[in-house]
Amino acid sequence: MTEKPTVSVLGTGIMGAAMARNLCRAGLDVRAWNRTREKAEPLAADGARITGTPAEAVEGADVVLTMLYDGNAVLDVMREAAPALRSGAVWAQCTTAGTDLITELAAFAREHGLVFYDAPVLGTRRPAEDGLLTVLAAGPQEGRAAVEPVFDAVGAKTVWTGDDGGTGSASRLKLVANSWVLAATAAAGEVLALSKGLGVDPQHFFDLIEGGPLDMGYLRAKATLILEDKLSPASFAVATAEKDARLIVQAGERQGVRLDVAAATAERLARAAAQGHADEDMAAAYFASFDE
After folding, report:
1. What is the full per-residue pLDDT of the chain (292 aa) written as tens digits?
2. 246 touches 97 (CB < 8 A)
3. Residue 288 and residue 265: Cα distance in Å, rounded?
4. CA-CA distance, 144 to 149, in Å (whole number)?
5. What is the distance between the alpha carbons of residues 137 and 235, in angstroms, rounded to a whole number?
6. Residues in contact with 291: Cβ distance below 8 Å, sequence separation at least 6, in sequence order
7. Distance CA 128, CA 201 (A)
8. What whole-number distance in Å separates Cα of residue 76 and Cα of residue 132?
9. Phi, psi of 19 (to 5 degrees)
10. How far is it, in rounded angstroms, from Cα 222 to Cα 234?
11. Does residue 125 contact residue 22 with C-beta atoms inside 8 Å?
């Protein structure tokens, strides 16, 4: 492997594009692929080589980074890339894929001689653009020299959760973190919806909690998006948030844990999407409180 690894980024949506751009800025050799090529093309101006197929993107790459919609999309794309994967290459799987598919993803890696890292990231559009994500990572010590420059380029810190990516320890922590993020987002929307319904000025609520234990920067940030109608472009879209909420509910069910708030949040997000808010920021779950 060269001193600075060659990195293949598969998936250049909101997060993947920002991550690829920061990899370029770090001086790494970056190839980028997206199913809709137009979403990847702007990265050429940052120095990335845009490819037409996943196989073309991964050929000879030291590190393959996947940032796609869900675990099934990851498997589909990696199967397309399989003929060109280099044995011994590192695979940083950054998609929020939940827990059910981790065993299958790790088995694919073993079958193709890849060093597998379960590496979902915590953060949304702005932290991704600024290279300030938190990388949650699990994987063997022997591949870290290749993958750490990648994690350093896209994130402010890396939290290691174990030496075996196949156990899904990083993905499990990501679901726990996202359960809080989604619950807080849903609560922010309901606070504003109830304020509207009861004729209460939302500012009176914010004045009431200011500086106390109930105050929260995240609450204020999401509320501002709603109140100032700044839901686009999304930091984290409604449709993707719904997918994550359902992954959280499913993971809990597998362990006999009932997650009523996560389940209700998934339904709120689904209603908002059906109302036409699927591509807006997940704070648009606010609209699910009203019949439109």
Report:
1. 447 899 999 999 999 999 999 999 999 999 999 999 999 999 999 999 999 999 999 999 999 999 999 999 999 999 999 999 999 999 999 999 999 999 999 999 999 999 999 999 999 999 999 999 999 999 999 989 999 999 999 999 999 999 999 999 999 999 999 999 999 999 999 999 999 999 999 999 999 999 999 999 999 999 999 999 999 999 999 999 999 999 999 999 999 999 999 999 999 999 999 999 999 999 999 999 999 7
2. no
3. 10
4. 9
5. 22
6. none
7. 34
8. 29
9. -65, -45
10. 11
11. no
* Closest by Cα among 156, 148, 149 to 128: 156
Distances (CA, A) of 196 to 91, 115, 191, 200, 203: 48, 52, 9, 6, 12
CB distance 9 to 47 below 8 Å: no
Number of Cα atoms under 13 Å in the Cβ half of residue 73? 16
Burial (CB < 10 A; 0-12, 13-18, 19+), residue 182, is: buried
Phi, psi of 120 (to 5 degrees): -65, 160
Sole residue written with tokens 């894929």:
97
Q: Hey, what are 57's tokens?
A: 């993107």
In sequence order, what DSSP letters do the residues of the chain get, joined into one string?
--SS-EEEEE--SHHHHHHHHHHHHTT-EEEEE-SSHHHHGGGGGGTPEE-SSHHHHHTT-SEEEE--SSHHHHHHHHHHHGGGPPTT-EEEE-S---STTHHHHHHHHHHTT-EEEE--EE--HHHHHTT-EEEEEE--GGGHHHHHHHHHHHEEEEEEEES-GGG-HHHHHHHHHHHHHHHHHHHHHHHHHHHHHHT--HHHHHHHHTTSTT--HHHHHHHHHHHTT---S-SSBHHHHHHHHHHHHHHHHHTT---HHHHHHHHHHHHHIIIIITTSBGGGGGGGGS--
**Residues 235 and 125 sit within 8 Å (Cβ to Cβ):** yes
